[in-house]
Amino acid sequence: MAADRRIEEITNRIRERSKPTREPYVDRIRLKGESAPKRTALNCGNLAHGFAACGPTDKARLTGDATLNLGIITSYNDMLSAHQPFETYPEIIRQTAREAGATAQVAGGVPAMCDGVTQGQIGMELSLFSRDVIAMSAAVGLSHDMYDAAVYLGVCDKIVPGLVIAALSFGHLPAIFVPAGPMTTGLPNDEKARIRQLYAEGKVGRDALLEAESKSYHGPGTCTFYGTANSNQMLMEIMGLHTPGSSFVNPNTPLRDALTREATRRALSITALGNEYTPAGLVVDERAVVNGVVGLHATGGSTNHTLHLVAMAAAAGIQLTWADISDLSEVTPLLARVYPNGLADVNHFQAAGGMGFLIRELLSHGLLHDDVRTAWGTGLSAYTVEAKLGDEGQVVRVPAPAESGDPKVLTTADKPFSSNGGLRVLNGNVGKAVIKVSAVKPEKRVVEAPARVFHDQDSLQRAFKAGELTGDFVAVVRFQGPKSNGMPELHKLTPSLGVLQDRGQKVALVTDGRMSGASGKVPAAIHVTPEALDGGPIGKIRDGDLIRLDGEAGTLEVLVDPAEFARRPNAEADLSGNEVGLGRELFAVFRRAVGTADTGASVF
Questions:
Q1: Which residues are CB-neighbours of 463 under 8 A, at least 6 positions away?
Q2: Is position 156 annotated in a ligand binding site?
Q3: Could you say which residues bind [4Fe-4S] cluster here (predicted)?
């Protein structure tokens, strides 16, 4: 089915807007694709360095120009559950390449930090910037120009967007993203949230909290709630950078290993030396970007992708805006309810029909572009399947189930949970902001109340513990933007604000910081831009100012006389405490160079 008229209109305006940047980008990757890599053109010393550590067979193959060489970019580390499974992947990939008469080498590693570990800690101030570090690290690995294609091993929040930016910077190379999969289901996410709130109220101790957290995050794989990590995997599949059906298969299973071997073979089959040359820069075009945004809305995905998708698109010369994202939200029905906008986890989503069911539903209603180029071939309809393990250990695919296995988790486009998507852009005299409404009850989406202003999340926490946050209020937490301190996530606030909301108070959050994919039941206007340090109006708000956050109408206003508000000076904050410690001093250049949230908060 052809794409819906409204989808086509938004896609066309993105295409027209992007022509001055997209067309030169495509010309560059086509020119590079015609000439590289040709390893025999390297000087003998260069080439000898490139295969010095290889075994005899690989060394002999790399001496010539006809053997394919696959570059592996890995985010493996064994401290983080999501990335620990990647330890064995390089050997699986190397062996599979050898069996196909090719070679594979780890081109480089990239850092992988976990927002779950750094939440509310100093290290979180490096989190967003790690995306651009990852892109640069991968670029260093691929700069040796020894490779005919690349596979990218990454899962979580900033890792996949950083790897995509790198893959598009090397857009002449075919790219396949290889996931590790989610951990098996542990303590239900709503029970974990309940214990967190009890701890915030002082009703349970640290032992009970740690026990609950350990039962939630209990083994290898991604966290099972639908945050940025799992939104990443959805995006890679719906944008055609995964093999079909591979996003949400658990780690350390025969099917997971079979999918990794298959991805290796597929990467080798789409190089410039074959008949299906599929450069990554042509896979990710305007249609693929729109498909990604639609998928994000249809699943109630992470607010972080209002930053990441803009930055990822820019790496391919595509100019995506928050207005595009907002308009696509109005077109896209919400088809999935996975925590925090439901009780299920991502394993339940997979069992209910997963990505194959979701993609088929969206395609059947013209909400996705089917006429795209993917790493798997032509047409997104090839992804309306479920991957299974065959009798001989190979991947076999069957059509996605005709009906959802659980309509409370995954529904049809005819019977959506909501007529529009889970993300919305807010506009008003405070600036532009993003809100995730899919997890917020309709009666909680409009809050008009006095402001309580804080310059960091710890100050708000102290006020909560002292019992000072009484009555209805809008918490304004500013000087949390990328220029101020790297735009950390402010999840530490979620339990406290949730407690107050449950007590019957009307509460909301307005911040130039982030909340990510775990944005929950409290309405939160996040990513406010311009940020306070950049002279944004959020810096003019004072305690007691009446603020109206309307998640339905898409507005964010401070209800103060316009002339008086314009005359106010912007607040100042002492940010010297954010400049050193745990590596923050190394990122001063990032804080100075970073762009605005609505342009991706990127240093590029």
A1: 452, 454, 469
A2: yes
A3: 156, 223
